[in-house]
Amino acid sequence: METVASSNLNDYTVRSLDLRKVYYAEGNKPKVGVDRVSFGIKEGDCFGLLGVNGAGKTTTFKMLTGETKPSSGTAHIMGYNLETQMDEAQKHIGYCP
Questions:
Q1: Strand partners, 15
Q2: CB under 8 Å to 30, separation ≥6 — which residues?
Q3: Which tens digit of pLDDT belongs to each residue from 10-49?
Q4: In this structure, are strands 14-23 and 31-41 parallel, antiparallel, or unpaired?
């Protein structure tokens, strides 16, 4: 069985690999908002992200839309790397929280 990590970029319209977001506040310990999330969404798939309050759903979508930068990991939309090609990737997504 192929995993997202071993897949080709073009296998998925949206691909997240080990996305992680850590928040740092002065005087406090770091808070992990998203911890190494990996998934792939193929064209035509219906996708839902479920979890309890505070699970990191909103933070994950904020990283996928470019509203916030991941601390580590990679994500691609239509093969465009969100770290280096966000302008191109944003032409292929819409998001209504």
A1: 40, 76
A2: 22, 23, 24
A3: 789 999 999 999 999 889 999 999 999 999 999 999 888 8
A4: antiparallel
Alpha helices in the chain (DSSP H): 57-65, 86-90
For the chain, domains (ranges, CATH) are 9-90 (3.40.50.300)
Assign 35 to helix, strand or coil: strand
Query: How confident is the model over 47-92, as pLDDT tens digits?
Result: 888 999 999 999 999 999 999 999 999 999 999 999 999 999 999 9
Spell out the SS3 assignment of 18-64. Answer: EEEEEECCCCCCCEEEEEEEEEEECCCCCCCCCCCCCCCHHHHHHHH
Task: Give the neighbor-by-neighbor strand order of the sheet with 14-23.
Answer: 31-41, 14-23, 72-77, 80-81
Q: How many CB atoms lie within 10 A of CB 47?
A: 10
